Amino acid sequence: MTNISCCSDKDHSGNPFASAGFWGAAVFGALLSLVVTGYAFPTSNNLFHLPIVERLYDRPEFAGDAFIQSLRYFSSGFWMILAGSAQWIAPEKAFFALFCLSRLLSFAGFLACADYFGVRDIRQRLLFSGVIAVTPLLQDCSFAGGGGLFINYFTHSEICNGLFLLAVWAALRGRFTLMLALVGVTFFVNAFFGVWLGFVAACVMGYEFFAGRLGLRQMLASAGVGLLVIVACAAPVIVNVMSNPDFGKPVDFNFVEFLKSYYPYHFLINTIDFKQIVVLAGVLAICVLSLLWLRDPDRRMTAPLAACVLLYGIGVGLPWATHAPAALNLHLLRSGTLIHLLAALLLSVVIVRWWFGPDNRQALAAAGLMAAMAASLLVDMTASRALADMVLLAVVAVKGGAVSPPRKIAARLAPHRRALALGALSLAVLLSAVAVHLREKAMAAEQAWRSEWARVADWAGRETKPGAIFMPPLMAASDPKSVRQDPAPYFTNTAFETLSHRSIWVDWKRGAAVLWRPSYYETWNARMAEAGGLKTLAQEYGYARAHGISYLIATPAAYCEGKSVFRTERLCVVQVD
Fold first, then answer.
1. Separation of CA 21 from chain center
2. Nearest CA to 106 among 114, 116, 96, 94?
3. For residues 66 and 520, is the Cβ–Cβ distance under 8 A?
4. In 295-375, where does DSSP find H-type helix?
């Protein structure tokens, strides 16, 4: 077997991106990862992206729609570039292509960092990419913060995962100008992620300076060039922020209370299940133990990791220090994503070392760390995490056939070692198939709801007058005739405005606009409180007449009691006279 060790190649100035094997492994990993996560469109935060690529805020039908108008100030340079792009490319095609490219960027970042630790042979890179693709550490969202990792839909924040890893690679190679330039690019894509990376970059440069590897002159030169790139990238985003009519105005409501009523898990540690915090601590332990086992001689990874932990710690304490929206909007608990990324990177290098290592002592580190990683299932079971653990079990099973157990056990197991490995591999494959089936079943159920909402939206666009307002079913409604246990009906209307060119009165998800348009809070909060308290169709009908709402949308379809003007299997529409 080929032996690899950290920094076995003393020349750290090499360019891994020039290798065809590097890109082959990146493509392989990205494709395998897409199989594990699947893909959904449109869903979740696409609610905010679709109106931008359609420029719905410029259409007369939405002139009075506070939510749609707020999206003018959705200050991501990425979406500023794509505004109106639906005129020349269908969003479903664009989003899928961007989804694939975003995932490929992440694998390029992972492989570049792994190159620093000696993962350079094509076989090593393929195994490394395969482990990264299936590790539970990267499935769904980060613990105790909910930052996006390998999720099943496209959003701009996940582009920054790859940019972060490339910035870490630049730091490991001592290319600090490039690292700072990537801070600027990241800020352009996602401002708060750019602030996170800027903090990490500053800590790295400070560490390298005091370690004596970065002279003052070099540091100032790198900072000067890097800051020019940062300013150039940040300028359009900052201009857009300053054009917001709410910019500089005091907030006349309790922002922390709004976060509690909307979605506190990105911001407030005291709202998060303690088990999530424990598992994040476990992820950090995996990260630290993996790094200690790798014995990075230059300790270049120490500063990025310490900075990520410190950043998350600041996020924990920040709400007790200030309620300022500008500070809380940094989503600092989501920065736990960075710890997940580093843990997955370092653990995967450990596993590659174990596979290609000359002896079996490395198995103890790899197996122990993988067992700790599997604990994620005890807290947040998802099909993707289950599938990931099963595939990793297959890796252990295959390698297990070549690992010698202790002598007393070896005598008994030796004749059956291959059979045991084959049995474990077969079980892993079977359980993986079950996990894929469960994931596809869940995604198909959500897709069925999206299809019904699309039919309602298509009807609304054809059969109702421009300017018509629709009130959808709300999670807060307490009508006993409604089925409120399944959240899918309330979160799958993502494309309603885009498909129908009609407004929605209010719903929970659209409350995110308060984060960038605080003046929307009064409208959103009042409507949620009023509409959420309606218990019968008669009450909803009277409320709609009083507020100029044209149509009610309800579920189940039987709730409309024969009064619907349009219905699907589970949704019905009632016209308000």
1. 28
2. 114
3. yes
4. 302-321, 325-328, 336-356, 361-374
In degrees, to the nearest 5, what angle opens at C-alpha 236 toward C-alphas 235 and 239?
85
Residues 428-464: tens digit of each pLDDT: 666 666 767 777 777 888 899 999 999 999 999 999 9
CA-CA distance, 110 to 162, in Å (whole number)?
A: 8
Contact between residue 432 and residue 390 where contact means Cβ atoms under 8 Å apart: yes
* The predicted structure's pLDDT at residue 477: 38
Q: Identify whether the C-beta of residue 284 lies closer than 8 Å to the C-beta of residue 339.
A: yes
**Alpha helix stretches (DSSP H) within 72-190:** 77-82, 91-116, 122-134, 159-172, 176-189
Task: State both tokens at 91.
Answer: 């969003």
pTM, entire model: 0.89
Contact 399, 354 (CB under 8 A): yes
464-473: burial string, b at 16+ Cβ within 10 Å, e else: beebbbbbbb
Tracing tokens 């949704």 back to the chain, one arrives at: 571
CA distances from 295 to 8, 13, 200, 299, 317 (A): 12, 20, 21, 8, 32
- Decide: helix, strand or coil at residue 37: helix
What is the widest separation between alpha-carbon atoms in the chain?
84
Cβ 304 vs Cβ 236: under 8 Å: no
Write out the two tokens for 327: 């500070």
